[in-house]
Amino acid sequence: MSLLKTATNVADFAAAARRRLPRVVWDYLDGGAEDETTLRDNRAGFERLKIMPRVLTGNAKRDQSVELFGTRFASPFMIGPTGLNGLFWPDADLALARAAASADVGFALSTASNNSLEEVAATGPGTRWFQLYPWGDAAFSARLLERAKRSGYSAVIVTVDTLTAGKRERDLRNGFSHELRITPRVVLDGLAHPAWLRSVWLGRGMPRFENLAEFLPPGASASQLADFTRSQRNPSFAWEDIERLKRTWEGPILVKGILASADAVRALEAGADGVVVSNHGGRQLDGAPATIDALPDIVAAIGGRGRVLVDGGFRRGSDIVKAVALGADAVLLGRSTLYGLAAAGQAGATRVLAILRDEVDRTLALAGARSLVDLQQMQIVSSPPSQLRHGALDRVV
Ligand SMILES: Cc1cc2nc3c(=O)[nH]c(=O)nc-3n(C[C@H](O)[C@H](O)[C@H](O)COP(=O)(O)O)c2cc1C
């Protein structure tokens, strides 16, 4: 039977992705920084939190839809921005955009995508946001925002936790950085994974950062584009630059990579419409807190003046329910949908979204909630039970 029929959860897709991908590609997808403590803690954070169920609440029908910046989505999650998706599947950004649209959830395209933002926009209906890496040359950022606006992207996520590269030791050991260099080890690794080799490598060759192609001479290679990306890192990017980007873009802007509540407030002062509580999936500062632990203080500090999204380790519907109960408006999926994509392309990502939707619905039912609004009154209990945590509105004691 096919994986699409047999897989019952995100972990099944992760296992299948791991089998299909060469080691170097799997490590890029799955790995974190240094000792990977933050990577692990993102998951452990969920395990420490429990949902206190309420019974007999008459919740035979549940509604998990959510409104963000004027658009209603079918579920409180969307596909977050990830770069170099073309390493996992050919035309991967198109596949993810289509999977999101078919599930009626949003899709955020990375600056470092392998299909251009215009190609992704041409996939048809769907709500798409553009993720911007703050470039050294402000003119490049302005130009990307102009293209995103012209192509109908409705919000921008500015990622601020990667101004310096994280130390990802699996990648260092594999000699991997922004691109796959052909070494004897990579060739052997590829030959041992023929399904991937046929579809990705022999099909397309090294995926290029297509959004950036216009900044280099025509026909620039994947490797030249990767060098360009490295050269454009901008460690001096600051809050004033967010203010400038907001003026340029005009539409909704979210600052992604916020963990301290003071920074969440600063983001709003700089004109942001919300934040993404994120530690980049444990790929940047190892030792940063789990995002689910950082979330409640940020929700309190924002106090309803902006939207709060969160990502990091979300693999179950119950994880998503916990985040919403703690006050998040929505969750960005990183590796979960990448596992689906890397295992089975668009169909795999679509199936992951369906599994998560079903798990959110089932969790709402079992917890005794009819909607996301009910969740705000849900008791979220941290284990050991001596430390009690409550839903965002702190109404239940
Ligand atoms: C393979 C990979 C590539 C990523 N590329 C980007 C990127 O280009 N831009 C960005 O803002 N975040 C990027 N991220 C971070 C994700 O947006 C998100 O913060 C993180 O994956 C969430 O954690 P999770 O994967 O455990 O769900 C990437 C993450 C992964 C796993």
Question: Remind me, CATH topology?
Answer: TIM Barrel
Termini separation (Å)? 48 Å
Shape: globular
Number of domains: 1
- Give the helix tally: 17
CATH architecture verdict: Alpha-Beta Barrel
Mean pLDDT, to the nearest integer, reads: 94
Taken as a percent bin, the fraction of beta residues is 5-15%
- The percent range for helix content is 40-55%
The CATH class: Alpha Beta
Give the ordered list of helices and strands: HHHHEEEEHEHEHEHHHHHEHEHEHEHHEE
Low-confidence parts:
392-397
Overall description:
- The structure is a single chain.
- The chain has about 400 residues and is α/β, with parallel strands linked by helices.
- It has helices at about 5, 10-20, 25-30, 35-50, 90-100, 115-120, 140-150, 170-175, 185-190, 195-205, 220-230, 240-250, 260-270, 290-300, 315-325, 335-365, 370-375; strands at about 50, 65-70, 70-75, 75-80, 105-110, 130, 155-160, 255-260, 275, 305-310, 330-335, 380, 390.
- The strands form three sheets. Strands 4-11-10-9-8-7-6-5 form an eight-stranded parallel sheet. It has a three-stranded antiparallel sheet with strand order 1-12-13. A two-stranded antiparallel sheet has the order 2-3.
- α5 (about 90-100) runs parallel beside α16 (about 335-365), α13 (about 260-270) packs across α14 and α15 crosses α16 (about 335-365).
- The protein starts with a helix and ends in a 7-residue tail after the last strand.
- About 50% of the residues are buried.
- Mean pLDDT is about 95; it is low at about 390-395.
- Bound molecules: flavin mononucleotide.
- Flavin mononucleotide binds near residues 29, 110, 131 and 256.
